[in-house]
Design goal:
Blueprint (H helix, E strand, L loop, with lengths): L9 H25 L15 H29 L6 H16 L1 H5 L2
Helix pairs in contact: 1-2, 2-3
């Protein structure tokens, strides 16, 4: 079992980082388009806009999480064993980034 823990080089890390950025950009714009009909763009109104924007945020986060879990499941089956160690690291970064992506979603 000693040969299971193979080290990845810097090229594998940067390739993973590049693919992670592409995945995040494509996922963000796809989910932004999917949730574009929800919410109110102008929140500074006398009416209460918190409910519709809350629904948009929750739908965005749930869809993002679903896409992320499917991507992790597919990648964990398709990647060679020596690259699988990167998957959970990028998964945790993407979980934290999900809440950061709400900011540009509501502030175009």
């Amino acid at each position: 079992m000693a040969d299971v823990q193979q080290k990845n080089g810097p090229l594998a890390f940067w390739a993973g980082a590049g693919l992670f950025v592409v995945f995040e950009v494509v996922t963000y714009y796809t989910l932004k388009f999917a949730t574009s009909g929800m919410g109110m763009p102008d929140q500074m109104q006398p009416e209460n806009t918190i409910v519709s924007n809350w629904v948009k945020a929750v739908v965005f986060l749930l869809l993002y999480l679903a896409v992320l879990v499917v991507a992790v499941l597919v990648l964990s089956n398709r990647l060679p064993r020596r690259y699988r160690g990167q998957i959970m690291g990028w998964f945790y970064v993407a979980l934290a980034l999900a809440f950061v992506l709400l900011w540009p979603l509501f502030n175009p």
